[in-house]
Amino acid sequence: MARKPAEQAVSREDILHAAAEVLRRNGYEGTTMKDIAAQVNLTAASLYHHFENKDVLLLAVLELGLRYVAREIESIVNDSSLTNVEKLRRIVHIHIANQTENRPAGVAMVYEVRHIVAQQPRGGLSDETIAEYNARRASFFAERRRFEALFQRVVREGIAAGEFRPVDVPVVVKTILGANNWVSVWYSEGGRLSGEQIAEEIAELFVRALHP
Amino acid sequence: MARKPAEQAVSREDILHAAAEVLRRNGYEGTTMKDIAAQVNLTAASLYHHFENKDVLLLAVLELGLRYVAREIESIVNDSSLTNVEKLRRIVHIHIANQTENRPAGVAMVYEVRHIVAQQPRGGLSDETIAEYNARRASFFAERRRFEALFQRVVREGIAAGEFRPVDVPVVVKTILGANNWVSVWYSEGGRLSGEQIAEEIAELFVRALHP
Amino acid sequence: MARKPAEQAVSREDILHAAAEVLRRNGYEGTTMKDIAAQVNLTAASLYHHFENKDVLLLAVLELGLRYVAREIESIVNDSSLTNVEKLRRIVHIHIANQTENRPAGVAMVYEVRHIVAQQPRGGLSDETIAEYNARRASFFAERRRFEALFQRVVREGIAAGEFRPVDVPVVVKTILGANNWVSVWYSEGGRLSGEQIAEEIAELFVRALHP
Amino acid sequence: MARKPAEQAVSREDILHAAAEVLRRNGYEGTTMKDIAAQVNLTAASLYHHFENKDVLLLAVLELGLRYVAREIESIVNDSSLTNVEKLRRIVHIHIANQTENRPAGVAMVYEVRHIVAQQPRGGLSDETIAEYNARRASFFAERRRFEALFQRVVREGIAAGEFRPVDVPVVVKTILGANNWVSVWYSEGGRLSGEQIAEEIAELFVRALHP
DNA sequence: CATGAATGAGAGTTCATTCAT
DNA sequence: GATGAATGAACTCTCATTCAT
């Protein structure tokens, strides 16, 4: 009753990537432990060696994906050699690339956030597991706030520098994020436009929208 | 063994409204036939007298919601006394109002479309039911295309009239829709801004973005 | 996907009796929903039509069994034509008969009480189900206290009447109950002695133990 | 990949004591290999170096516990300076102390015997393991018979010596054991009475019950 | 010896769906 | 039309057990 001996073992990381892929295809509720397991040639039971829980696992996926983009965007935002207009263009590009390319959780995030917001950790769990879940959840939301804050900073500093007209920063940023996120819903590989071209068009749109 | 004595019997319409409400609260997967039935004081079994299927039912909900907004928007777009700038402002307002006020299918649409796109009609069904489902699905997508076409018409005619600069119309419309849809994700009643104010800000943003 | 049409439907009562039987054979943890279902020719899923929960179901079994014996014993205790010595003999007989004959939950009670005492209602349940469970649990314990109180009353009144010597009533009653309960552990049908004979011997033992 | 560096390795004995503790807390079914392992700072897998089986392990625990009490009782029974009345008092005390103090197998025995009686050795095991299990089982029951025989001997010799009235020895002994075992069910530390006091009351009860 | 990784078997539970009444 | 009872399929999760390292 034990297998998978020589073949290199599966790591947490591997599972997270597999899960991200399944999540993208099937959505949160549509994703089963069996699906994820199959993706890494394991049985569902085996996943519980690496994650205490489906929720914990999926949350880890989203957090990972988010952290990844946030890092990229952060380096742009901190680059003092760029104007805020240029920063806005670039981070829109990065965000959209994250939707159109397969970067884990990029797509997932659009749809699945509602589950995390609403959801009590699945019932009948040990206190430790609930603690683990809440920790992950807090971590995810923290990352999420940081992510949004980066966009806000660019707009705010752009306004201060006279590069952008004064606007309601939170609403504008939500609008940009909404537009970008939505790309993952309608983008199709091999469509009329590449991800790059789409990003170009959208970035231009918002730069003009904010023009003083 | 038949209940529902005094109260007049429930209609398809009643069920659709109830389902829309549940859908808004619980999401597609989270919505059970029992939930919907409870909302109209029926048992799950009874729903099958009115709809052949959960999928058919939910699809009807989305179609209904969509048709409703489409009607409203259509009357604006056909009003020849308005400029295209004015039309754009108004339809953005209507679309967002549909997200922030409780118009059920409005909210649902953001998240749930994926199910309809992806989903094979649930296995093991009679051919008639599958046919019914596919008909509904086609109908939904037709409505959806009409809906989007209305936005596209405004932008396109605005460009032709010199009110808007030339842009990639499909991408721009998707961007506007994405931004509007996203409102339902982050809007909270009693928040800092009313739905009206949010709509105002977003409309202004896109009008400027398209300024020649 | 629906069966069991004409054959007379299964009632809650039927299930309780079936469950009692399985409980007796397999013990609390050893009893599966499938086992119980099989006993009444149903599938496990069907049981959830009648009981919200395994715990709720099993608790109902124990409560039912207990209530049954308590009723019998009560009528003896209230019979003012009997001496307390006679009452003690009779209730010991009844209690032991309950262990040796197949009266539901008689046997179960010996082992399974620990589960009810210790156990949090299984996690991940709706609030209503938890409420239902707690109600049943309270009801069970109330019944249990009543049951023990009946024995105590006989001993106490016997002492007052000079039929019994003064003793520590609670301890003595626990001792009698323990001895009786234990019968279910070692009694085997077709053994050297009948249930009646065993009861006779044990009753005699305690009557003498209490002799002034 | 081997841990447990400084501390000297765990012995079978250590595991048995740990298991007894867990058994007492959680009951037979509620006790997992992981629980036991955790108690001795091992992993579940490691337990299989010491015992072929969960059942074998737990059986060993019960046997150990039983053997321990049996020894104590034996020395009393063999003490020719004591009357049988005195012997009975003392062995009741020992037996009850075994329930009220933390001697693990004491408590466990009450509940868990059923598993051993009923249970086929878990399926799918090697013949050797089954053999080992059956050996342990036989050994357990032998110990159990010896234990009961000690009580029987006291009663029987007491009758022969005229210290006790003639009774059905097996039934009487079962009754005494049942009463004693039951103490573990209701005894609570810090309750109104100490274990000693309870034992006193019960011993007195049975001595009088057997008085000629 | 000990462990981490893996697994099969099964448990409880949910849910869309069916059908006789 | 409506319901209660029933079901199959699926899902999450647990656990004893194995085996290469």
Distance between the termini of chain A: 69 Å
Count of helix runs of chain A: 9
Name of the CATH architecture of chain A:
Orthogonal Bundle
CATH class of chain A, named: Mainly Alpha
Q: How large is the radius of gyration of chain A?
A: 19 Å
- What is the domain tally of chain A? 1
- Structural class label of chain A: mainly alpha
Sheet having the most strands of chain A: none
Shape of chain A: elongated
Helix content of chain A: over 70%
Number of strands of chain A: 0
- Strand residues, percent of chain A: under 5%
Q: What name does the CATH topology of chain A carry?
A: Tetracycline Repressor, domain 2
CATH superfamily of chain A: Tetracycline Repressor, domain 2
Oligomer: homotetramer
Overall pLDDT level of chain A:
88
Low-confidence stretches of chain A: none
The H/E string of chain A reads HHHHHHHHH
